[in-house]
């Protein structure tokens, strides 16, 4: 596949915001942590961490179709239990640091 064939696949920044009290979120945290681990193992998530301001948690994903990402995020125990919601920023990576070329096939090809 050439580079142009990858450009229709966007990368995403998923911003998680809690919609329930911290005590309820804390109770579901082990399930959420396991879910995160599985997404990293599958290669779907690239980076995650605690957010500040509007996002309680931030996730950078690999390039994929938006429908697939929506299905993955809907399976988060926080979402299933209605403890949080995601806002997603979609972008097409056109420049990538040398260390990250392997995750941006559009540039690496």
Word description of this protein:
- The protein has 109 residues and is α+β, with helices and mostly antiparallel strands.
- It has a single domain, classed as Alpha-Beta Plaits, CATH 3.30.70.
- 34% of the residues lie in helices and 25% in strands.
- It is built from four helices and four strands, in the order βαββααβα.
- Strands 2-3-1-4 form a four-stranded antiparallel β-sheet, covered by helices on one side.
- It is elongated, with a radius of gyration of 15 Å.
- The relative contact order is 0.27.
- Mean pLDDT is 87; it is low at 1-7.
Number of helices: 4
In the CATH hierarchy, the third-tier topology is known as Alpha-Beta Plaits
CATH class: Alpha Beta
Architecture per CATH nomenclature, i.e. the level-2 architecture: 2-Layer Sandwich
Question: SSE order, as H and E?
Answer: EHEEHHEH
Number of strands: 4
Main pleated-sheet profile: 4 strands, antiparallel
């Amino acid at each position: 596949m050439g580079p142009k064939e990858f450009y229709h696949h966007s990368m995403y920044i998923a911003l998680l915001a809690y919609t329930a009290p911290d005590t309820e979120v804390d109770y579901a945290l082990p399930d959420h942590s396991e879910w995160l681990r599985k997404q990293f193992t599958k290669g779907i998530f690239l980076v995650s961490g605690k957010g500040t301001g509007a996002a309680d948690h931030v996730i950078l994903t690999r390039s994929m179709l938006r429908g697939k990402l929506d299905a993955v995020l809907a399976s988060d125990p926080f979402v299933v239990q209605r403890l949080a919601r995601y806002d997603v920023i979609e972008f097409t990576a056109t420049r990538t640091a040398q260390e990250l070329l392997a995750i941006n096939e559009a540039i690496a090809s």
